[in-house]
Task: inverse folding
């Protein structure tokens, strides 16, 4: 029933997207943070594209499968994981559309973003836009955003200002085809 | 209103050309303290609205300022004397002035970008600070850019200019003039900011 509503939401706007809350429990998210924080991250620092920590070198099949399965129920077609990006963002971090444009997957895809942060920041929004109209995903730990990446759709990850304090945003972004 | 006759054009022209990472000049004590006070009073009476987008979050006036004192200041910046001076300093064929009033509060920012859009005719950008007391952060930061195919491939901070009451900063507008306003961490930063247009 809930999935039916989420399918409807996903199709409701020109940008096909839905944010599914409470996919990951606090304990599962905490374990994932511990696993991921033990891995080496690189700092991405190109000022007109973004500033954040990232790694693409971690595969956790159980997590990938859970997110893929959820996305398949929403979009109602089989999907495979094409790539994964793990991100950590703190105060002063951001990712701009120029960064998205340089990094975007070539071809139709479903973008799935898991937020496994310890706490909500009150910021850290994902903004999808065609340059005129915007669709905003509010940051909520444990939630998953599922977005159909049309060629005209770009994304930016909003700058984290001093309001985030010392909180850290943890994200896993999967590209599914 | 703006005592251009006191500007040392030779020095400013040389400073512009020699400035790194790209041409710019910093001029302190632009107007009299009385006019500075009047401008601050005018900004306090000018409506400002929250502006939030991909690269910015601040309060700004309408694109056309309304208060007579602000309009008079805009006209003074666009006067033949000031235009001639800015042309001499920058070597750019500026002709008119576009400005808005901006209020940065704690958490406000403007992320790295270049103002260059040929269709808009922006040749020289400026930021004139009218209230910065107690402001932490809010510096204008200029980047050295490594370019390829007209795109920035690498950029490093090269110059940080502190906001200061009655200071104007003017800088060249090109695809490589990457700059930002660092996040304000405390206090307020009030400025009149815009472009000399061709």
Result:
């Amino acid at each position: 029933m809930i999935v039916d509503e989420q399918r409807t939401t996903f199709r409701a706007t020109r940008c096909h997207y839905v944010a599914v809350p409470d996919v990951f429990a606090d304990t599962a998210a905490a374990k994932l943070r511990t696993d991921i924080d033990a891995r080496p991250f690189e700092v991405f620092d190109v000022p007109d594209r973004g500033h954040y920590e990232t790694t693409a070198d971690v595969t956790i099949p159980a997590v990938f499968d859970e997110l893929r399965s959820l996305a398949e129920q929403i979009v109602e077609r089989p999907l495979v994981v094409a790539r994964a990006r793990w991100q950590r963002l703190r105060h002063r971090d951001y990712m701009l559309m120029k960064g998205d444009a340089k990094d975007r997957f070539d071809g139709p895809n479903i973008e799935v973003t898991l937020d496994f942060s310890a706490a909500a920041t009150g910021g850290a929004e994902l903004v999808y836009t065609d340059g005129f109209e915007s669709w905003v995903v509010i940051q909520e730990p444990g939630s998953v955003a599922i977005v159909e990446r049309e060629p005209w759709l770009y994304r930016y990850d909003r700058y984290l200002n001093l309001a985030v304090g010392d909180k850290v945003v943890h994200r896993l972004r999967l590209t599914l085809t | 209103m703006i005592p251009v006759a006191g500007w040392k054009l030779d020095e400013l022209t040389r400073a512009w050309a020699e400035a790194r990472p790209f041409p710019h000049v910093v001029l302190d004590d632009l107007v009299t303290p009385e006019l500075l006070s009047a401008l601050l009073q005018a900004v306090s009476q000018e409506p400002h609205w929250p502006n939030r987008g991909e690269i910015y979050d601040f309060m700004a006036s309408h694109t056309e300022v309304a208060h007579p004192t602000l309009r008079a200041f805009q006209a003074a910046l666009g006067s033949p004397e000031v235009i001639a001076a800015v042309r001499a300093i920058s070597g750019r064929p500026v002709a008119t002035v576009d400005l808005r009033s901006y209020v940065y509060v704690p958490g406000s920012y403007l992320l790295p970008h270049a103002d260059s859009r040929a269709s808009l005719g922006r040749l020289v950008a400026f930021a004139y600070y009218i209230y910065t007391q107690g402001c932490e952060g809010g510096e204008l930061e200029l980047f050295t850019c490594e370019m390829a195919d007209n795109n920035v491939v690498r950029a490093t901070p090269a110059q940080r200019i502190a906001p200061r009451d009655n200071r104007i900063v003017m800088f060249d507008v090109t695809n490589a003039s990457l700059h930002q306003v660092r996040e304000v961490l405390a206090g307020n930063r009030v400025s009149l900011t815009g472009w000399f247009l061709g």
Remarks:
- The first strand of chain A starts at residue 17 and ends at 20.
- Chain A has a mean pLDDT of 95.
- Residues 15 and 148 of chain A are 7 Å apart (CA to CA).
